[in-house]
Design goal:
alpha/beta, TIM Barrel, single chain, two-stranded antiparallel sheet, globular, about 200 residues, 7 helices, 6-stranded parallel sheet
Length: about 200
């Protein structure tokens, strides 16, 4: 396995995404626990140490399934990513209850990586709206050691990314993009966003 250096840790170049786990009888909300355990065991045996889940994956059952599978390994042997589900605007005023439930479902006391999920045209205003306190709450969790690295994923147009980064660039440890065009644009504009 190849590893990448990231702020003092070694992350496997390949990670295990938990959006499409094997499911019992083809039901999306029922991951097949035995097969998930097999997948995780195979991944870890081959050097994978990064696992990525989210609130909405498998109708909310992905976090619990991957949490059970990883609970059989020492916590310091893997890195777990989860995400705040801002793609659904009805979640914006529930950051604390959702975050606490995610920790519980995953069976961990902290997340190595935590993301604002899918920053885009539809939710950027709500993500940045102080009345919801999302950023404030998650920064507090980072300060308390319950989030090691805070980031975001983005699927909107480049102007959304530019606006988001112009207002918040100094906060993020990492970001995920959905387009190679964004990566190129990010590289050319990052100095301006950080100044």
């Amino acid at each position: 396995m190849l590893y990448n250096d990231f702020q003092g840790i070694k992350l496997s170049s390949l990670g295990l995404g938990c959006m499409r786990l094997p499911c019992a009888e083809g039901r999306d909300g029922s991951p097949d626990e035995e097969k998930v355990f097999e997948m995780v065991d195979l991944a870890i045996k081959n050097g994978v140490n990064y696992f990525d889940t989210a609130w909405g994956y498998h109708e909310g059952a992905s976090e619990r399934a991957i949490g059970k599978a990883l609970a059989r390994y020492p916590r310091e042997s893997f890195y777990l990513a989860d995400k705040f589900p801002g793609y659904d605007l009805s979640n914006m005023d529930k950051v604390e209850s959702i975050f606490e439930e995610q920790l519980s479902k995953c069976g961990v006391s902290y997340f190595d990586f935590y993301l604002f999920h899918n920053v885009c045209e539809r939710n950027i205003d709500a993500y940045l709206d102080e009345k919801y306190g999302i950023l404030e709450y998650l920064l507090k969790q980072k300060e308390n050691g319950r989030i090691k690295h805070l980031g975001f994923s983005a699927h909107g147009d480049l102007p959304v990314l530019e606006r988001f980064l112009t207002l918040t660039a100094s906060i993020w440890s990492f970001a995920r993009y959905s387009s190679i065009t964004w990566i190129t644009a990010f590289r050319t504009r990052r100095k301006r966003w950080r100044s």
